[in-house]
Structure formats: structure tokens, C-alpha cells
Amino acid sequence: MAETMPCVRGILCNFRPFLYREMFLGLLVLHIVSPFYNTAAVEILRPRGVSLLHKPFYDESKPFTCLDGSATIPFDQVNDDYCDCKDGTDEPGTAACPNMMYYCSNKGFTPKTIPSSRVNDGICDCCDGTDEYSGLILCQDKCREMGAVELEQRKKQAEVINKGFQMRQTLVADGKQTMQDREAKLNALKEEKQVVETKKQEAQAAKEAAEAPEKEAVDKHKQAWDEVKAAREQERQKEAGTVAFSELDLDGDGLVKLEEFQTHLEFDDDVDGEVTEDEAKTHLGDVTEVDLDRFLTETWPEIKDLYQGEKDKAKEPPAEVPAKGDPDLAPSEETPPPPPAEEEEEREEEEEEEHDDDEPDIDVDKDEPKTDEDEMPDYDEETKQLISAADLARAEYTEANKKVTDIDAQIRQLEKQLGTDFGAEAEYSSLDGQCFELETKEYKYKLCPFDKCSQSPKHGGSETTLGRWESWAGPEDNKYSAMKYTKGQNCWNGPDRSTEVRMTCGIENKLLSASEPNRCEYVFEFETPAMCAKEVPNNPEFSHEEL
Ligand code: MAN
User: How far is the CA of 517 from the centre of ligand 1 (A)?
Assistant: First the structure.
């Protein structure tokens, strides 16, 4: 039957005897001691392309039954390069049956399956070279060499994992201790807070008690001073008013009359150069004359600013340009030029001094510096003591209040830390408060675990937040293998920036890479001993069935 079957790949159709030899390499179980793997291993011989798993189906002492049961053939038709079985299982080591897989045992390295169409195609696919047995090409067995390289890598990896594991043990112990310490500190602070809170309330009561008499005494002092000031002002106004009265009372008859008012241009409301009777009357208080008493009580308060202003003006140097239509006021050729500013000032000062001595000053210049007389006198001794006592009580209250505020801040911080998930065994606790940086061509990236991720352009520009700590984000069976940071700076025309931090086992805490697979969605890779949760054998072996 096999002779009539189509030969799928054809090239070895006439080499049945050769295949037989290949097929029966023997069923001897060899005991191989591999010095390399330092372990005892066995090599189980079987038809080419058959995995150890399928070995029991290929018993050369019996006819072969296709694995789908579709046919039974003499065993010497296995791997004879004719496809006898519908499921192709009679040709595990040739390319005779379509869509089959060839199993390279790759002794010394990792087994591999390749499409059986690649068997004897002139390319070495398996490191043991068994896929090219036709002689078309000579493939060297490179499996042991490759195995040695891989093993070396695995050994190094194992060393890292185991060292990381040891470090993790310390992290776990420290993390748990830290959590316990924080718990204890929180309780102590809560108790302390009650004490300082009580002290604060006492200090507040003492402050209020000290401030009440202080305020009373200070208010009394200020009120007395206000009264003194008011009396002085009244006296000043009386003096100024009396002087003004005598100036206005041109004929000295003890009355200021309308016509006398009319000689004073300050009452020229419409500024037409003439004080009309009506204008004078308005300012005099709707009467035709006033005596000194009435002038002081009724007229002077109304006109003093106006009168004062005109007097001030009169002090100014004469205007250079004569008033329009008033030739008398034009400066004559002989008029001496106004004195230089400095001289003028000196003169004014002298005048003022003289003035001070001679007559009461009606010129209450608002811009004049205050004299000692205008300064409120010192508090009396008793008030001073009350102020000192209140100052002390205020300082004590401020101090007590600060203690409460400080303790509140510490409590908040501890509660936040205790509320944070630092891993199944608090192994990530030590990362809290630290930051790790990585520079790429364009940016400096920063990861501050349990706080935020950020990005700063290396060539100027401000920091951009790439997300704030949100939660652990690993898969259900490995929750603590990834972190999620969200609600970062908004991306123009896009979402808020966010970052996923993928954790791997390593013997130091290090930010390994930062990328942006989608716009404004970042991925950081971070290695840490906290991720080295399992120990591995220091002398690793391949999980290889073909050793
Ligand atoms: C900045 C950086 C980039 C980001 C763009 C989006 O340039 O934050 O990472 O892709 O903004 O506009």
C-alpha cells in the first residue's frame, strides 16, 4: 500500500532502506552523566521526530496504528517517507505528510517543533541538525554550545533572582516594622493631640482673659488721646478763625460785612474776577454781617478750606503771566525775578518760624510732618503691663496652636501612609518618599513611587506631570507587578496623561526605560528587589526532557 501512496515531498521516496536504519537507532536506555548540567540524564531513543510524550505510541515490536486509529501498518513503514495515515502520524520524521509538525529533540538545548515541510529543505532549523538528515546539507549539532550559553545566562539570572529574594526578605521585614512603627506613632500622636488640644484651649482662654483688660485699657488711652486731639483741633480752629476774622474785618468794627467779603477773591465762585453780593452772601451764611462769635461757630467752618486755600496760593511765587484784562497785575520791568527755589524755601522756612512765634498758625498743612505733639503719648505703666501680659498670652497661644497644627499634619501623613497599599508584605514600603530618574535623548523622566511620574524636557521647559499615584495594576494573580498613575497634565486635544509602571525583579531599584506607546500614555519599566518574590535553584537546569 505504501508503494502506491503519493510521495508528498518526493525527494526521498526511494530511500526506504536508509530510513529504516535511521528509524531503528535502538531502544537502548542510556545512562548519560552530563558534567555540564551536573545531573544524571537519560537519552531515550525513538523514531526521528517523535517527542518523548508520543514515544509510547511508537513500539517497534508491534505494527503501528495511526494515532487517529484510521489504519494499522507494519512498523517499518513508519518514517518511510510515504504518508500512510490520514493524520500523518506515521511520518513524524519526514516531510511526507502535509501540515505536520516535526519535533527536534535538540539534546542539550530546548526542544522545538517546526513545520515538517522544513525537513530536508536544505536549511538547518533544529540546533541538533536532525531536520536535515538527507545529506543535502550537513548541519552541525550546536545544541550543547547554545545550551551552555543559555545556561550561563540562566545562572546569572538565578543569582540575581536569589540575591533579590534575599534583599526582598529584608524589605519585607523593614516594611512590616515600618508599618508597625507608624501604627504606634499614630496612636501616640493621637494621645498627644488630646493633651496639646487641651493646652491650646487653656491658652486660648488665657489669651482672651488677658486681652479683655488690655483692650479696655488701650481703648481708654486712645479715647483720651482722641479727646485731647479734638480739643486741640478746636482750639486751633478758634485761633485760625479769629485771625481770619480780623483779616476780613477791614474796618475793624468787630463785624465782618458783605462788602468786606467782596474784597476777597476766594469767594469769587464763578471766577469772573469779581465777588458779587450774592457770592459773598452765600459764603457769609445768608446774612449781611456777622460778629466774631457767629463767625467762629457758623461762618468759619464753612469757609476755612476755601480761605485757607487762597492763603496758601498767596504764598506761592507770583505768576509770570498776568491775569487777562488786569494790566495792573502785569509784572513791571522793575519787578525783581523770583528768588531761586532753594532761597525761596529757606525764606519760607524762616517766615514760618517767625510766624510760629508771632501768631497762631492758621495754616494747618496736611502734608506737614507730624510733630511730637501729634504723637499719641506712651501708655501708662498699668496699661503697658496689661499689654505685655496679653502679648505673652498671645505667644503662648500661638505656640500651643502650632503644636496642634504640627501634630495634625503628622497624623494626616501617617494615616495616608498606613492607608497606602505597599504590597502583599509591605515590600514596597521603602520606595515611598524616594524618586528615580532616567534620561532619554529628549527628556528626563522621574518616578516617585506612590506619588507621581513626570517628564522634563532636557533642553529647557517645565516639568509635565505624567500621572499621580492611583493603584496597583498588575493582573489578578500578580497584582503587585504594575502600578498605575493617572490624572496627569492634560494632553492637548487628548486625555489626561497617565503612566503604567511595569516592575521586574532586580537587585537595585532602578528606572530602566520610559516610552510613550500611545500619545500621552506612558510606560515605565522599573526593576526592584521587591519584585523578587521566589527563590530559584542556583544551578538551573533546562526543563528539558532530552538531557
Ligand atoms: C509633550 C510631551 C509628549 C507628548 C506631547 C503631546 O511634548 O509630553 O510626551 O506626546 O506633549 O502633545
Answer: 12
